[in-house]
Amino acid sequence: MDLGKLEVQYGEVTSYTFSTASKKVAGGQWSVVSEAEREEGSGVRGQGSGKADGSNITNADGDKNEPIGAVDILPERMGNAQTAGGISTAPTENNSSKPTALPTSYFLLPTSSAVPHSSLLTLRSSPPNPEPRIPNPDAQVCYLGYTNPSTHRIIADNLSKSPKYAGLIKGAGARYCPSVEDKIVRFADKERHPFFLEPEGAKTQEMYVQGLSTGLPADVQLKLYRSIEGFENVQIMRDAYAIEYECIDPTELFATLQCKRCAGLFFAGQINGTSGYEEAAAQGVVAGINAARFLRGEPGLILPRESSYTGVLIDDLVTKGTDEPYRMMTSRAEYRLLLRQDNADLRMEEFARLGGILGKERLDAVAQKRAQIELGKKRLEKRLSQKAVTQFFERIGEPAPQSGLTVSDVIRRNLVTFENFTA
Question: How far is CA 407 from CA 275, 293, 374, 384, 386, in A?
Fold first, then answer.
């Protein structure tokens, strides 16, 4: 299915052009704009609804499978709104009455199957689970498994049935989680590939097969699973599938995730070229905050790279773009040593306050923590007398200093521990 191009017009409507009748249309309402009307910028021609099955596409006149001109995804006039404060303002006027097209590309996302625990044969954790540091009565056991030459042979014999290798889809897949077909083709020298069985929850039989994502047909999936030791009688609760999705060029966005070509239009998630739940959630938070601030005429919220991984992710997208599904990794952040869990509240407190998502009690707690840290820094810079330091070092076996030292200098010595320093 050729999805054409996403089209936007400053201060007007946003439309999605289809070159042929859609094979899949999300359920709900859509609006049709003819080619002539789109050239004139005169708005929508009619309305209709569609289902996931392309045979049920119906317009307002009751006609089915009529070639679609454009699907209106922003039915209300945006107006010439502008982000206040000058942090990231979008263009507010356009001398041309014709819409301009956002460049788009296609990416591929293969998924894994889910199988019931009860249909599996002997399972054992490998290696045996060590005692957890913190006992958790709700902890679930995960299992490690491997494919084998028989599994690889089944996959190789059915590669022509894979949408990717059959040439039906051409989107780039995520580099860090290839499908099992890609593993067999790209790493043909390997006799086996690992996968993990992960319980979906404490009160379900469902196990997620992590590492065997595929776009092969359901009957082939069952064959390849049953070729694996312990899976001889396995049943599949949910088949794996592959999705080819269209996304915009994220360099068309400001760091607030607002579209440069259409004030008030924000993009977040997979449509920006990312892959992963957390990546989508992070963008959704920023885009949602900025959409609300836009409506209130307030400055947009921008997270710098040194503030958070979310800031790194958005900065990478809007400045460099991506030619493959983008995943957030620590190696992408030059400030990764500063982006830690233990200082997240200190790093993000200012932005959370600007976003209006922290209450007074939480703000006061962060302020108290910041004050305690500053007090601790002052204590570390306190200078100790040479006599006191010499006596302490002689007691623990450290060489005596030539002069007095600060507390910070003392605790850096190899033989100094918290216990002997505070004794």
Answer: 47, 47, 15, 7, 12
Please state, in angstroms and rounded to a whole number, the distance separating the CA atoms of residues 91 and 252.
12
pLDDT in tens, 140-181: 888 899 999 999 999 999 999 998 888 888 888 888 888 999
The H or E element that residue 29 is part of is: strand 28-32
Kindly provide the residue ranges of all beta strands, DSSP E only, lying in 53-173, ordered along the sequence: 70-74, 100-102, 104-110, 114-116, 143-146, 172-173
The model's pLDDT over 297-314, given as tens digits with 9 standing for 90+, comes to: 999 999 999 999 999 999
Strand, helix or coil for residue 406:
strand
Is the Cβ–Cβ distance between 147 and 225 less than 8 Å? no
Q: What b-and-e string marks burial along 164-185, b requiring 16 or more CB atoms within 10 Å of the CB?
A: bbeeebebebbeebbbbbbbbb
Q: Using CA atoms, how far apart are residues 202 and 200, in angstroms rounded to an integer?
A: 7
Q: With a threshold of 0.85, does the pTM exceed it?
A: no
What does 332-378 look like in DSSP terms, one character per residue? G-TTTTT--GGGHHHHHHHHHHHHT---HHHHHHHHHHHHHHHHHHH
Give yes or no for a contact between 213 and 180, defined as CB atoms under 8 angstroms apart. yes
Q: Are 266 and 287 in contact (CB under 8 A)?
A: yes
Question: What single DSSP character describes residue 111?
Answer: B
* Amino acid letter, residue 33: V
Q: Which helix (H) or strand (E) holds 206?
A: strand 206-210
CB atoms within 10 A of CB 46: 12
Q: What is the largest CA-CA distance in the chain?
A: 96
The token pair at 193 is 């590939």
Residue 394 Rama label (left phi>0; alpha psi -120 to 50; beta): alpha
